[in-house]
């Protein structure tokens, strides 16, 4: 099929894992009722963003994948006939945890998972304390409504990740994410940070000729020190914004994408064709210097 309708679910979270899961399920059903065929939830949607502190108790939030949350979402996917992209805290084994996204097809079947590759360690984003870097490589999932590539939050900043996923045949790139502003920052800094975040992802759409769907959370967390900035968006393969969410409201939006446009964009802006792949081997170095 050429055209597909993607559902963006931008929401706030509470300290109750069950409450967040039930809320997400209700919003997936609402998106499906509006015509969505693929619904993307935000990063770690079953909890508050707990990585602002290094606290061993937070590991209790993790679960197996497949597991309880994917079982519940699988039933919803089958009932509503939608693909669900679900970002979860994965317990792989004792003492081994990942930031992982599961993909459930429109018949409720579990298609697999992608484990976040790039793990940040910034003030208020202490993810290296919790998450082991992904070891499944980049992934593309063949769903009922198209081949989708999943990358997670910090992966957003890396053109290498989006390029590889697109080269694997992804027709749409999805980014579940959790990012926000420190509330003691000035407005100019806030604007610059958001613009950088949106710009880098739209550039992935342009460079690869595929749509990008980025889904972020909203709301104040971390005792008011962090305002998650929402701003979820959908861009086509030329980087054109087709939808832009607010910075402070929960939203459900359904956007139709024409996957046939990718062929048009790639023919007229032939960035894939013109890549000089024989010159790119130095990119595997940490830095290009005499050592």
From TrEMBL:
Matches recorded under CDD domains: CPA (cd07573)
GO biological process: putrescine biosynthetic process from arginine
Domain of life, per lineage: Bacteria
A GO molecular-function annotation: N-carbamoylputrescine amidase activity
Record-annotated CN hydrolase domain positions: 4-259
UniProt-listed InterPro entries: Aliph_Amidase/BUP, C-N_Hydrolase, C-N_Hydrolase_sf
SUPFAM superfamilies given in the database record: Carbon-nitrogen hydrolase
Transmembrane segments: none
UniProt keyword annotation of Hydrolase present: yes
The name this protein goes by in its record: N-carbamoylputrescine amidase
PANTHER family: BETA-UREIDOPROPIONASE, NITRILASE C965.09-RELATED
Keywords in alphabetical order: Hydrolase
